[in-house]
Amino acid sequence: MSVATDDARAWVEANVPAAWREAAAAGRPIREVRTFAAYEAWYPTFAASGYVVPTWPKQYGGLDVDVATAREIEAVLAPYALGRLNPLGLNLCAPALFAHGTEAQRLRFLPRIVDNTEKWCQLFSEPGAGSDLASLSTRAVRDGDEWVLDGQKVWTTWAHVSDYAVCLARTNPDVPKRKGITYFLVDLHAPGVTVRPLRHLTGEIDFNEVFLDRVRVPDFQRVGAAGDGWKVAAATLSGERQMVSGAGSGGVDRIGGAGADTLLSPSIAQPVLRQRVTALWAEEQVRAWTNQRVRGGPLTSIGKVHQGDLNQRIQLAAVDRMGARATAWQGEHLDRTVRGMLRSRANTIEGGTTEVNKNVIGERVLGLPREPDPYDGAPWKDVPRS
């Protein structure tokens, strides 16, 4: 047992509430004894420990340990379900700041991301620029020490509860589309920002459309050089793919529903369904082991493609196991399993569509030729857009 493991166990004993520890020791779900509000209120204790991001340098809120030590720590903490809040800040904004930000930017933003005092989202997709993100038309014009942003973004997860957003805007329409984009950090409480929620099929609000009407952003909140935003965005997009690649990725295990392990039961009477559930469980284990070997870069698209399809198949099996009960719900009384299945339908779209991620795998992992583009190299202003 390492010193890091001993320290983590001692920290758990001193800081994790007794009811949570007792539930974990008994093998009971932590949610039975802990509300989200209670966890959010306790979270600053977790953040102050450095265990939220143990591999990060100490000045940004981490412990500056290596990956192997971090995984030892994660193994100690795992039974207590100490999920990281502010995942879009940790997985989307932070990689860009580490790769392309200044030290002043990292010191200003990273500690507040870790302790969840400033929540983050991503202003990338637009009504006419989703899968072809580089065709985006939100504009940013320099005005002294500030930039003025105008445009519309859509499918922005958690914008309605966020304080800041990473944002791509076009700063030069006279060059090819990937050359004239700049990466900004936008204060969502600034004048000119309007957030309008979009409801899911299941009634919840996760997604939003965001309107930017002459929003002023200090040049200090530009990450990378003007026109280099596409290169900066690569760090964010890689982090996003990893975040939604499922168990073993260091992000979220799944979006929508529970894992295949929750379906395993001797009470499954139908042999065909039992075999189906067992196969899904085995596939989920393989996916987790694969994700453990991939932390960043284009390889994260592999987990993203697999996870989207796999989770949808798991949630369909969960509903099939319910039988006719899955169809008998009304109004807000939506069964939890059915809700998970409906939510999972977005898995192959969010975080980059399966089709786009397959292109990433083909071109950047397998080295296949890029798809033909008749407008390759043409100025953005001359390229047709939807």
State the gist of this model.
About 40% of the residues lie in helices and about 15% in strands. With about 375 residues, the chain is an alpha+beta fold. It folds into 3 domains: about 5-85, no CATH class; about 95-235, Butyryl-CoA Dehydrogenase, subunit A, domain 2 (Beta Barrel); about 245-350, no CATH class.
What does this structure look like?
The protein has 386 residues and is an alpha+beta fold. It folds into three domains: 3-83, no CATH class; 94-233, Butyryl-CoA Dehydrogenase, subunit A, domain 2 (Beta Barrel); 245-349, no CATH class. Helices cover 40% and strands 14% of the residues. The protein contains eleven helices and eight strands. The chain has helices at residues 3-15, 18-25, 36-49, 67-77, 87-100, 103-114, 229-243, 271-292, 300-322, 336-344, 354-365; strands spanning 120-123, 139-143, 146-153, 164-170, 181-187, 193-199, 205-218, 222-223. It has a four-stranded mixed beta sheet. It has a four-stranded antiparallel beta sheet with strand order 2-3-7-6, with no helix packed on it. β6 (193-199) and β7 form a beta hairpin. The longest helix has 23 residues, at 300-322. The model has no long low-confidence stretch (mean pLDDT 89).
